Amino acid sequence: MADRIPVVLVAGFLGSGKTTLLNHLLRDNRGTRIGVVVNDFGAINIDSMLVAGQVDAMVSLGNGCVCCAVDVTELDELFTRLTQPRAGIDVIVVEASGLAEPRNLIRMVVGSDNPRLRYGGLVEVVDAEQFPDSSARHPELRTHLRLADLVVVNKADRVASEQLARLRADIAALVGSVPVYATTYGRIDPGLLFDRPRRERPLVAEQLGFDELLVEHEHDDDHAGHRHLHDDYTSVSFDSDRELDPRKLIGFLEDPPPGLFRAKGFAAFGVAGERRKFVLHMVGRHIVFEPGGWSRGESRGAQLVLIGAGLHTDKALARLRDTVHDDAEPLDAQSMLGVWRYTPH
User: Fold this and answer.
1) Directed axis angle between helix 161-175 and helix 140-147, to 10°?
2) 3-state SS of 235-295?
3) Phi and psi of 97, rounded to 5°?
4) Sequence-separated (6 or more) residues with CB below 8 Å from residue 65
5) Rounded-to-integer distance, Cα 31 and Cα 203, Å
6) How far apart are CA 37 and CA 54, in angstroms?
């Protein structure tokens, strides 16, 4: 499952900054090969390099990324092409239309039969300045936020700090423990959304030279007085040489600490007769376990990584330590029911 390609959905109302965020991810990919899916080529200008082509075209961007423009009904066919090993794609980012229904996109990804895909989360982009008015005119926008795994409050520099704080508090009350990340110009660290590839690659800047110009341009913007407000993301590791209690771990995942966006890793469970290794991937509310075997020399226990924005790491780690099975007596098989609920069959 670790080799499956995450599909990250980026949605939000017209003008919220989805394309700007996408351009930033492409600019800052550092060797990550991104498969980009957009509804309409005419709506995207990738780093001032407008991609010409028909709506059914797949165009190489020159930095290892691929840009495709499709009708939503063609997503399954496109996923098949992008997940072929020879494509070498590390992550797929789908930029939804400003009027798209995110629930349908989530269903298409989660319900896909493609064994090389996994759901990478729904990112909802909000215009800090316009959202109060636009959500009053279009109440469904608030419904969309309830589906999000991560809310990005963009254009945070256009409102006063008190107004931004009120908006974030309002969104937090709506979405619960889902991270609410404030930024400007769509700047979000790619490490929050997806992992860097492990393979060795030359730096993109060395391949193109264009990325260096972009970095210099950003620095020029900074000196010109633009304010680049953005939140940082947090990554913390949990290691245990003991087995976990599956009920307690499921309780942690189903009621995650505020700000947690992703969790990944593996665990052994202190259950009678259960000797397998369970690989975990969690994005937002979407949890998947996959049982497998242990590698030679690998010790039973647990290793988990938590990734989020505004995540209180000490509290999160304390809760994870509480999931360790301390009793010498193994748990009964019924304690695995929660894990099986999140295991694909």
Assistant:
1) 70
2) EEEEEECCCECHHHHHHHHHCCCCCEEEEEEEECECECCCCCEEEEEEECCEEEEEEECCC
3) -60, 150
4) 26, 29, 33, 34, 35, 36
5) 6
6) 13
Q: 332, 272 in Cβ contact below 8 A?
A: yes
Closest-CA residue to 76 (of 34, 116, 41): 116
**pLDDT (tens place) for every residue of the chain, 345 residues total:** 457 999 999 999 888 998 889 888 877 767 788 888 875 444 444 433 332 222 234 555 555 555 565 565 667 888 888 888 888 889 998 887 766 678 888 888 888 889 999 999 999 999 999 999 999 999 999 999 999 999 999 999 999 999 999 999 999 999 999 999 999 999 999 999 998 776 554 433 333 233 333 333 444 444 344 445 778 889 999 999 999 999 999 999 999 999 999 999 999 999 999 999 999 999 999 999 999 999 888 889 999 999 999 899 999 999 999 999 998 899 999 999 999 999 987
Q: In this structure, what DSSP letter does residue 128 have?
A: T
CA distance 89 to 102: 23
Helix orientation angle between 102-110 and 140-147, rounded to the nearest 10 degrees: 30
Q: How far out from the chain centre does Cα 179 lie?
A: 11
**Residue 110 belongs to what H/E stretch?**
helix 102-110
